Amino acid sequence: MLVADLMQLKAARVPTVRMTENVEMAATLLNRERIGAVVVKDACGSEGDTVVGIFSERDVVRAVAERGVAALKAPVADLMSRNMISCQMDDSVDHVRALMDTHRVRHLPVLQDHQLVGVLSIRDVLAYDVRKAAESSAQPSPDRVNAEPLRLQA
């Protein structure tokens, strides 16, 4: 299965935040949307749709632990991850799983022709794995289809 297949199962709307917004606003967005990370876009008028990073719940916790409540007024740009790992629509789910594991991330922006089309989370990958496992356990294996019935001895 490809990323494009998983993206068809998700809502089309992708919440984002501008890099100039403060941490409090971004945390409010994360809470309201019930998501763990949000893609950060630049603030320039002509280039306002350029993805520049990702901001997660972990960033909020780390900032408050290090700076206290004052961190909530800091711009997202100060705390976001700029070294963003992303995937493409034609990547396999196995590749996405490997990226998440290797880079220890739980959210991957999905880009197509350098444009943001969505975000995949570890939850999306896990849901796919569960569906796949359920489908394979529901189908009898070839060995069991032609097997002799088990006879119990009295």
* Average pLDDT over all residues: 87
In order across it, which strands form the biggest sheet? Answer: 1-2-3
Please give the count of helices. 7
Low-confidence stretches: none
Query: What portion of residues is helical?
Result: 40-55%
Structural class: alpha/beta
Q: What radius of gyration results from the CA coordinates? A: 21 Å
Order of helices and strands: HEHEEHHEHEEHH
Q: What's the total number of strands? A: 6
Q: Tell me, what's the shape?
A: elongated
Strand content: 15-25%
The CA-CA distance between the termini, in Å, is 49 Å
For the largest beta-sheet, the strand count, sense and barrel status come to: 3 strands, mixed
Please tell me about this protein's structure.
This protein has 154 residues and is an alpha/beta fold. The protein is 41% helix and 19% strand. The chain has seven helices and six strands; from the N terminus they run αβαββααβαββαα. Strands 1-2-3 form a three-stranded mixed beta sheet. The protein has a three-stranded mixed beta sheet with strand order 4-5-6. Strand 5 and strand 6 (115-121) form a beta hairpin. The chain starts with a helix and ends in a 9-residue tail after the last helix.
